[in-house]
Specification:
The complex is a heterodimer of chains A (82) and B (232).
Chain A lengths: L1 E8 L6 H12 L12 E6 L5 H16 L5 E7 L4
Chain B lengths: L1 E6 L6 H11 L2 E6 L11 E4 L20 H10 L3 E5 L1 H9 L5 E3 L7 E9 L15 E8 L3 E3 L2 H9 L3 E6 L18 E5 L5 E4 L17 H14 L1
Parallel strand pairs in B: 1-2, 1-3, 3-4, 4-11
Antiparallel strand pairs in B: 5-8, 6-7, 6-9, 9-10, 10-11
Helix pairs in contact in B: 1-5
EC number (chain B): 6.3.5.3, 3.5.1.2
Catalytic activity (chain B): L-glutamine + H2O = L-glutamate + NH4(+); N(2)-formyl-N(1)-(5-phospho-beta-D-ribosyl)glycinamide + L-glutamine + ATP + H2O = 2-formamido-N(1)-(5-O-phospho-beta-D-ribosyl)acetamidine + L-glutamate + ADP + phosphate + H(+)
Organism (chain B): Microvirga terricola
Chain lengths: 82, 232
């Protein structure tokens, strides 16, 4: 089973890196971009096929390490097998 | 009086920290991050600067969850003194021992320069050798020193007198120009609720010898040693 965890900055938290990227896109002439916020993506392999167990493990991973919930939100998406 | 300096993979300021502590009269032992216990009789735990785990994920995030940090948390819970400098401050925030977080500097640059700090209070174990309001001359070297906390935390820090140091000019004036990393309220260092844990971005251990260009950093280590000597 695989999952993708996305960690993003909470609204209102200043993101100087996102601002710098936004500025760089403007200077490259890419039009129509109003704002950029930088985040992180974690692709995670899980040893279990039990969705509830996977969800619990991923929540623990996010809360304990992947996100600092003072400033960041996280989103967990478990990929359906195919 | 005995200090334990915790070394993580990527710590690089432990040597200067050992020197500063020894100069002030402390016995010092280095402790490896994978250890689970502090040396018997440890009075003070110090988390030195550097780039623990290469700053991967977030600065201090992985070190903040190392095994030895359980022992450091227990030491702090008993009222033991803990000092974190630079990466050590980041680790204290990530470990939950201090509130808030150090974000990327507002100007996105690694800053490395001499810096004056205003001593906000001199009635703690960390600052009693200084005068209240004194501007001390130390230095900073960091890319992520932009202290950030939610409004409620900030209000609590200010209301309870938990700000240890603020970035200031040579006259002790807290000005926007002196706050080069963009920290909220110009915060350079903070205390825990019980004033026994203190984290700061600047390096007092850099300025302890005339040959280094200044000795204003000595006061912090002298404060700690004299506080603990009296307690013993």
């Amino acid at each position: 089973m695989k999952a993708r965890v996305t960690v993003t900055l909470k609204n209102g938290v200043l993101d100087p890196q996102g601002k710098a990227i936004e500025g760089a896109l403007k200077s490259l002439g890419v039009e129509g971009i109003d704002g950029v916020r930088q985040g992180k993506v974690f692709d995670i392999e899980l040893g279990t096929t039990d969705k509830a167990k996977a969800e619990a493990a991923l929540k623990a991973a996010c809360e304990k390490l992947l996100a600092n919930t003072v400033i960041e939100n996280y989103n967990v998406a478990i990929e359906s097998g195919h | 009086m005995k200090s334990a300096v915790i070394v993580f993979p990527g710590s690089n300021r432990e040597g200067d920290m050992l020197r500063a502590l020894k100069q002030a009269g402390s016995r010092v032992e280095k402790v490896w991050h994978a250890d689970t216990e502090l040396p018997p009789g440890t009075d003070l735990v110090v988390l030195p600067g550097g780039f623990s785990y290469g700053d991967y994920l977030r600065c201090g995030a992985i070190a903040g969850r190392a095994h030895i940090m359980d022992a450091v948390r227990a030491h702090a819970a008993r009222g033991g003194l803990v000092l974190g400098v630079c990466n050590g401050f980041q680790i204290l925030c990530e470990s939950g021992l201090l509130p808030g977080i150090l974000m990327r500097n507002a100007n996105l640059k690694f800053i490395c320069h001499r810096q004056f700090l205003r001593v906000e209070r001199n009635d703690t174990a960390f600052t009693k050798a200084y005068a209240k309001g004194q501007a001390i001359d130390v230095c900073v070297a960091h890319g992520e020193g932009n202290y950030t906390a939610d409004a409620e935390t900030l209000k609590r820090l200010e209301g309870e007198g938990l700000v240890a140091f603020r970035y200031c000019d040579a006259d002790g004036q807290v000005t926007p120009d002196a706050n080069r990393n963009g920290s909220m309220n110009s915060i350079a260092g903070i205390y825990s609720e019980k004033l026994n844990v203190m984290g700061m971005m600047p390096h007092p251990e850099n300025l302890i010898e005339d040959m280094m260009g200044g000795t204003d950093g000595r006061g912090l280590f002298q404060s700690l040693v004299s506080s603990l000597a009296k307690a013993a």
